[in-house]
Amino acid sequence: MRRRGSPGKAALAAVLLLAACRPGKPPAPDVVARIGETEVHYSEFEGYLSRTGGESENVLASDVLSQLFDQFLDEELLVRRAADRGLVKESLVGKDAGPGARRRAIDELLRADVKAQPSDPEIAAYYVAHREEFSRPERVRLRQILTEDRATAEKALRELSAGADFGRLADKLSRDPGAKSGGYQGELSRQDLPPAFADLIFALQPGQVSRLVPADYGFHIFQVVSRAPAEVVPLETARPEIAEHLREQKADQVLAELVQDARRRYNVQLYERNLPFEYKGSYGHAPKTS
Length: 290
Description:
With 290 residues, the chain is of the alpha+beta class. It is 45% helix and 16% strand.
């Protein structure tokens, strides 16, 4: 028979269950996550923001901050994974490691897993499947003089008619950002030009100077330096570009796989209530520690 005042088995079980469910010590207000036993402080994320974009969290929307915070945590996990695999020193794990060293840790992971260079058949297959990417329209290499007033533009036309060098005159009279390089604008297709200028410019022959062309912001004078016909870049010319693209594509794929593997390996607890923005990321919700 049970003695009066002593707890029964059911009551004892209830006490033990209550003790087991009692939460641990709440995190400090500046702790926003925990990776295993390592605390992650909000100041570390602020440093990450300043290194990657220079924008303050006060001017970024919550969804953008959430995406950047996920990237920050992913980087933390990748550095830890690189250390666990012996690719970098253990000292790189933690807030004291510099951003350059942490970037090198992630590069070591990629170097270890992205081993094969694109093969010739892979490059050729990409070229055939994306042939339109290597089609080049007709282009012109173009220079211009841009003046604020008509009088200066007409003076420039008179000097050009008298044999003045276009580049030197652009350096002297033009207010275009490219004036110091002789007014050079680069190699441009029709699609690269404002429609109001394209027909006039593509009607010019190499070395020929246009008439004065008024615009809302000033007056243009154009000169076509040379022309390049429409063409399809041959495979041999495109090979280095394709190889680099395929390497980057493979690295992106491997990086995504490494992130998913690291997320599975390491226990990440997120303390959303300590974040000064509404978290909308992919790390889920923090465990309740009230």
